[in-house]
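check this one:
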Amino acid sequence: MTKEYKTIVEVSGPLIFIAKTEPVGYNELVNIKLPDGSTKRGQVLDTSADIVVVQVFEGTGGLNEESGVVFTGETVKLPVSKDMLGRILSGSGEPLDGGPRIVPEDRLDVNGASMNPYSRMPPEEFIQTGISTIDGTNTLVRGQKLPIFSGSGLPHNEIALQIARQAKVPGSEEPFAVVFAAMGITNEEAQYFMEDFEKTGALERAVVFLNLADDPAVERIITPRLALTAAEYLAYQHDMHVLVILTDITNYCEALRQMGAAREEVPGRRGYPGYMYTDLASLYERAGVIKGTKGSVTQFSILTMPGDDITHPIPDLSGYITEGQIVVSRELHRKGIYPPINVLPSLSRLMNSGIGAGRTRDDHKAVSDQMYAAYAEGRDLRGLVAIVGKDALSERDQRILEFADLFEDRFVRQGREEDRSIEDTLNVAWSILSELPEALLTRVDNKFIEKYHPAHKKSN
């Protein structure tokens, strides 16, 4: 027989403190009965011999000492089914699209199960996003976790939607799905996401979770776990290749900080909890490919850097856990370039595993290295020109300077609906490199120059 406790001793923000309970489990699900007869849900956050701390999902308004608390003995579970594809759900898994509740094939713990490092397969299959600055120079591979570091007011949401629409594995007929989770977004942004998914047809192969800014902060902590649980179900029980897009991790971390303050925890850097690294790792490390399974989970998590500070705790800790980062540039955005991705601080540590002959093209690595080197030198020369003027540069340096402008205008810049294949991306790269004298192409083997350089192609 379940017991109902009326021993709430304190209500603090989204938390309630309950005394004189029998032993309860960490993360256990709680039903709270209000004096007016309504019910709210919560989750055990901390438990000891004297007190149990419960975070309330729907907010603590209306709760008092007369409210009854029932411990269910279960953790938070997500009802899952393949019918989730094509659905838009709230941050707690409730339908937002006017459709019926999902009839579950199973109910899975949202905390997932830790992936045994030994059972992980090394990621090596190329995923094409249709965006040249990612596919060409910071390639995403299946099973990778690659965050996008952005700033307030930059078009990271548009980039996320474009990736959700266009992502695919070239030449593969295997089922591919997208799980999109938005945390702490405004109603306007939610409408924008929903309209874009429905208008473009991307919703047919997507599951969307939307947590709004006016929803309880506690729900924000659950939302990414629901999304990852849905992704793991589709990947490992239906053999699908799933791309998970989480936006915005900064809002998630703010919710963690709010919860830590309510619990009166000793704060870490800039007021964030000392366990934030572990908490973020519990999300990021749920990406991967497991030996003996056909499916995979790949992650794009988007975070806005407060004050564009890449040393802020959120991007700093994320960079330690993930396999690189894509950096969105305010400078390129001011120039009107979309997508404003700066390839110089961006990095994909697994890129070399997913490119080359048989995956993308044999010249991919050489072309990427050559463009990176020339663009980096061109950016340095812009600083020099500001001091000595363009006329003081040698002819070689002027060509490199012009290359940097061409790179931004023709390689980085592309349309919001433009879906470039990897062939198109590499051909655009060669058209820009052809503006440099062949003697400057020091990072490209002669066999690739003879095979792909536009001047040699014409002579052939």
